[in-house]
Amino acid sequence: MVLIGCGQLTWTGVDGGTVMREIAQAGYDGAPGPLSLDRPVEEVVAWFGEFGLKPAPSYFSAKFWDPADEEGILRQAPDVARYARGLGCIELYVAATGMEHVAPSGTSRRDLAGHVRPEDAMSGEQFTQFGKVLGAFADATMAEGVTSCFHPHVGTVIETAAELGSLLAAVSTDALCLGLDTGHIAWAGDDPVAVCLRYLDRVRTLHLKDVNREVRERGVAADWSYGQFTEAGVFAELGEGMVDFPAILTPLLETGFDGWLIVETDVTMKPTPLESAAISRQYLASLGL
Prior knowledge:
Elements: E1 3-6, H1 16-25, E2 30-32, H2 41-49, E3 54-56, E4 59-62, H3 70-86, E5 91-96, H4 124-142, E6 147-150, H5 161-169, E7 177-178, H6 182-187, H7 192-198, E8 206-208, E9 210-211, H8 213-221, H9 226-232, E10 235-236, H10 245-254, E11 260-263, H11 273-286
Helix pairs in contact: 3-4, 4-5, 7-10
């Protein structure tokens, strides 16, 4: 059964209970669960249940390309996977940190957001290290019954479709799947339909975001940084931006997909987060979801 979650980032300065009540009010099945390994999973699941919600797949990020972090990353993998299973999830979003990472040009990836050039990519050695550690991490979570789903993200070292392709070529295991993000693909300047269809058989969960084309183009022309894009409204509610969701979701569902679809509008231009969440949920309902 396909489940529809809602990311909590739209709500700022609001208590957690209010956030969860409004997500439920907007018609969602759940929201991303925390990876607070020191908090009993039973307690987290019970708290979600108070609002009629389920924990959706969590998010783990690290400097996979840094040899100094390899041991620590791999040490965490089994515990993180067991915690995810305890939350009731069999998928885990896995991503790169690195907005502070400095590209060969001397500019941070945060400042290159949305207008990355081929020469801004990591070195071949860094891609090799990233692929090795990411693959080992995916094998370790799979051993615990959890599929690691890599998540490209604007402002990190894996932003563009080309960077994603280079990374996947460096991963030798079949255990790694994908948790793509339609909005980040569009913001990066790639075609979200083409990217999702290319990797359709590897998608186990998906972040659904929409992008305001005019804001994106204005920001690219002005060399905005990550925060300038979001403050100007690069994110749009589903159905109000440039992403062709039916062209992605119809073939995805035809594969028998039965995982989580997680709606995210990190920063909204609507009057309230609740209104934003409701618009996106109603759009998905219009598609039969």
